[in-house]
């Protein structure tokens, strides 16, 4: 029977070409969207899940209380934490500290072997690193490869750049240049396979953490429990209940702090908890020390969008199939009279929809293959269309689901007619049938309107982010690393930069204003009654002037006042939290070093708009890792050309690599920007699919009312009256969809906007714009068929067939 059903289904699809084309376009577009989203979701879920000990691998997260009672969350931890946890907590199999230099404003270092200087990103890791993470060692012993402070491990990719091979390079030496205290000659002790694309940590070389600890112990307070410097990762022994374990270790860091400082209870020191490492990419948003979502929200959102777009395409099929059901009634009647069961008819019609879905799947795969490079460009991923064991069952399941959903109502509808009533011509369109069809149209456009409102809200919020006054001027500012030979003459270099044509100002700093900065607790001041977590940067002269920061009290760093080596500037929030009434002149203790407050800077956003402005300091230093340069508007090319020439003069052998500050700022919202772009495409496709169904329904409605239109025209009805007759019912449905969609859209986007501390208000104008857009699209779609029917010759309509 199956071959017979398929043959009949194929003939019916060929017979009704307009119906087939409309449904193929709708279903293939919907399936293509679903496949794109499936590939994106699978890629997101695969991040960091390749480690062998994935189920036992966790990152230590630290919290810190604020003066207002709120709680901040940090991924950096005390430098002593990993060793203490490994030594004192029996449930832990391994614990390692990892320092990523990029986290602290240190850009890529320069690795040199045989006269081939190459930029590389580095990590400093504990000796058990390869027992914790599953980066494959090609050469070297994972038990001791990081024990020696003079060792370095390089990736196979870096090895090919330096030596054109990975063989016989263990024991060779390289020179490393990134920070003065770490510069020197290192011995290659091993080669590891570069992290895969689905690894959140991408790096080229690994040094010993013990070397980093000994080098920066005093500067960064690594031997103090108030420091926040390395990331700490642990592997739990099998069978450990993470919820019970988190309760056990909650106060571990606070207890250690209290013991080290002779305190009974370090109330302002934070607690710790473990988060599964492979979940960190998706669950990276915290509220008051508790995981509150993150990228997982977009994974869920796009998964729901995929389902809704496929449903919209299925609804098109249902509506078109039931609208043209009159043409198949005699077929149903004859089959029933000759003995066909309802079950066989249902299978036949489901077979038709599944066959159509399979054809749509083939078209969808072609669409995905052609557009995947563009999709990768938008999402900044490297997704490949590979027909592996997981992909084939997934796409077949999606297709089968689509076919069954799309064909279920038409199959039940057509197979349920009474054969005698069919053959006598007594079948009439029931009220229930009309209500179902209209309800499906309303459902389609409710989703479309929600998509339109969501796109407008995301767009407006992105506009706010890009135009909001941050408290500093990010426009026409470039930043680049202090590296190589430039480090030996940074002061003279910055002085020469200021003289170049098109340059407004320049300064040196460590860290930046887009999230890379140092800080922590451990700052004391007269009358201190509570602990505060600070963020901050180090800077030379002219940073405030270059960035456009405004002082409310005191002064900036200046050569006119002699050495400013012991000077610091706090922001307004820090001064308020410290309770200082007259801050200028106050001496504070910053990690064992006395500093004098010389000024108070007006609050500015030094992180993303997800976070409120916290306590911040700018500490004077003449040893900095970055340079920021303010360029005159409309003189970028001249200024950059001069700057590149000067850079080569000071730093032979290296080209200037820089970024614009506004681009770095925009990268804080990469996920939101991608969501904004993808949402526009998916919303447009949802509307197009809905309009295809509306176009088909308008066509069949015009055909069904052909004689009525002819009679009305004969008795004097105008074209405008006929068009209104055919469109008013559809417009009423769209208006109902708009009314239903608006509160749903408001609730959805209100929840999304709550993530931002600064957000737009969803006014009536935004919803009015969405309503006008969908009504205009509907009128254009319906009018094509309505006008065609209204201007047709009534003689042809009334002619007896």
How is this structure best described in words?
- The strands form 3 sheets. Strands 1, 2, 3, 4, 5, 6, 7, 8, 9, 10, 11, 12 and 13 form a 13-stranded mixed beta sheet that branches. Strands 16, 17, 18, 19, 20, 21, 22, 23, 24, 25, 26 and 27 form a 12-stranded mixed beta sheet that branches. A two-stranded antiparallel ribbon has the order 14-15.
- It starts with a helix and ends with a helix.
- Helix 2 runs antiparallel to helix 9 (296-323) and helix 11 runs antiparallel to helix 12 (391-415).
- With 801 residues, it is an alpha+beta fold.
- 49% of the residues lie in helices and 17% in strands.
- The protein folds into 4 domains: 1-47 and 297-428, no CATH class; 54-280, no CATH class; 444-467 and 669-801, no CATH class; 484-653, no CATH class.
- Its main location: membrane.
- One of its GO terms (molecular function) is transmembrane transporter activity.
């Amino acid at each position: 029977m199956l071959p017979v059903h398929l043959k009949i289904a194929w003939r019916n699809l060929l017979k009704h070409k307009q119906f087939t084309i409309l449904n193929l376009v709708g279903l293939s577009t919907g399936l293509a969207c679903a496949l794109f989203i499936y590939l994106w979701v699978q890629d997101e879920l695969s991040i960091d899940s390749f480690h062998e000990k994935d189920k036992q691998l966790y990152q230590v997260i630290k919290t810190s209380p604020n003066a207002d009672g709120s709680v901040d969350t940090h991924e950096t931890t005390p430098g002593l934490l990993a060793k203490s946890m490994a030594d004192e907590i029996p449930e832990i199999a391994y614990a390692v500290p990892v320092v990523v230099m990029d986290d602290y404003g240190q850009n890529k270092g320069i690795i040199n072997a045989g006269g081939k200087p190459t930029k590389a990103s580095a990590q400093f890791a504990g000796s058990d690193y390869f027992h914790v993470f599953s980066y494959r060692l090609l050469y070297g012993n994972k038990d001791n490869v990081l024990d020696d402070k003079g060792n370095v491990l390089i990736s196979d990719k870096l090895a090919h750049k330096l030596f054109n091979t990975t063989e016989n390079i263990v024991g060779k030496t390289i020179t490393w240049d990134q920070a003065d205290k770490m510069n020197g000659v290192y011995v290659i002790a091993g080669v590891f396979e570069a992290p895969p694309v689905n690894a959140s940590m991408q790096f080229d070389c690994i040094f010993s953490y013990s070397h980093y600890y000994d080098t920066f112990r005093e500067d960064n307070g690594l031997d103090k429990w108030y420091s926040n410097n390395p990331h700490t990762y642990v592997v739990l022994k099998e069978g450990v209940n993470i919820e019970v374990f988190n309760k056990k270790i909650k106060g571990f860091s606070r207890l250690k702090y209290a013991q080290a400082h002779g305190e009974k209870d370090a109330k302002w020191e934070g607690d710790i908890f473990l988060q599964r490492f492979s979940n960190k990419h998706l669950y990276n948003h915290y509220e008051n020390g508790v995981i509150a979502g993150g990228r997982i929200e977009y994974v869920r959102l796009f998964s729901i969008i995929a389902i809704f777009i496929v449903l919209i395409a299925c609804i098109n099929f249902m509506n078109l199939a039931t609208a043209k059901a009159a043409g198949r009634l005699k077929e149903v009647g004859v089959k029933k009279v000759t003995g066909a069961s309802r079950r066989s008819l249902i299978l036949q019609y489901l077979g038709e929809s599944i066959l159509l879905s399979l054809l749509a799947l083939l078209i969808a795969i072609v669409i995905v293959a052609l557009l995947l490079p563009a999709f990768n460009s938008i999402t900044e991923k490297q997704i490949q269309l590979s027909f592996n064991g997981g992909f084939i069952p997934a796409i077949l399941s999606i297709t089968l689901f689509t076919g069954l959903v799309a064909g279920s109502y038409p199959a039940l509808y057509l197979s349920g007619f009474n054969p005698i009533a069919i053959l006598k011509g007594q079948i009439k369109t029931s009220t229930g049938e009309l209500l179902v069809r209209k309800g499906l149209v309303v459902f389609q456009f409710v989703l479309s309107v929600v998509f339109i409102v969501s796109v407008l809200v995301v767009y407006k919020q992105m506009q706010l982010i890009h135009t909001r006054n941050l408290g500093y001027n990010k426009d026409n500012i470039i930043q680049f690393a202090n590296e190589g030979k430039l480090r030996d003459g940074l002061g003279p270099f910055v002085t020469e930069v200021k003289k170049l044509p098109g340059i407004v100002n320049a300064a040196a700093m460590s860290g930046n204003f887009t999230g890379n900065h140092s800080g922590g607790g451990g700052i004391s001041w007269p009358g201190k009654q509570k602990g505060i977590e600070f963020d901050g940067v180090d800077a030379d002269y002219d940073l405030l002037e270059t960035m456009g920061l405004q002082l409310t009290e005191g002064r900036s760093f200046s050569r006119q006042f002699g050495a400013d080596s012991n000077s610091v500037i706090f922001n307004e929030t820090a001064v308020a939290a410290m309770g200082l009434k007259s801050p200028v002149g106050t001496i504070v203790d910053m990690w064992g070093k006395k500093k004098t407050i010389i000024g108070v800077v007006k609050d500015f956003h030094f992180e993303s708009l997800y976070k409120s402005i916290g306590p911040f300091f700018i500490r004077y230093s003449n040893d900095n890792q970055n340079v920021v340069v303010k360029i005159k508007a409309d003189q970028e090319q001249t200024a950059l050309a001069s700057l590149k020439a000067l850079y080569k003069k000071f730093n032979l052998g290296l080209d200037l690599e820089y970024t614009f500050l506004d681009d770095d700022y925009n990268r804080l919202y990469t996920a939101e920007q991608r969501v904004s772009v993808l949402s526009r495409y998916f919303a447009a496709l949802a509307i197009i699919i809905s309009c295809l169904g509306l176009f088909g329904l308008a066509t069949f409605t015009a055909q069904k009312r052909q004689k009525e239109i002819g009679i009305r025209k004969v008795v004097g009805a105008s074209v405008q009256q006929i068009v209104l007759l055919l469109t008013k019912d559809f417009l009423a449905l769209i208006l109902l969809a708009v009314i239903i969609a608006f509160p749903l859209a408001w609730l959805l986007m209100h929840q999304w906007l709550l993530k931002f501390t600064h957000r737009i208000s969803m006014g009536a104008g935004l919803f009015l714009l969405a309503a006008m857009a969908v009504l205009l699209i509907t009128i254009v779609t319906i009018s094509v068929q309505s006008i065609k029917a209204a201007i047709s010759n009534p003689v042809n309509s009334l002619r007896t067939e």
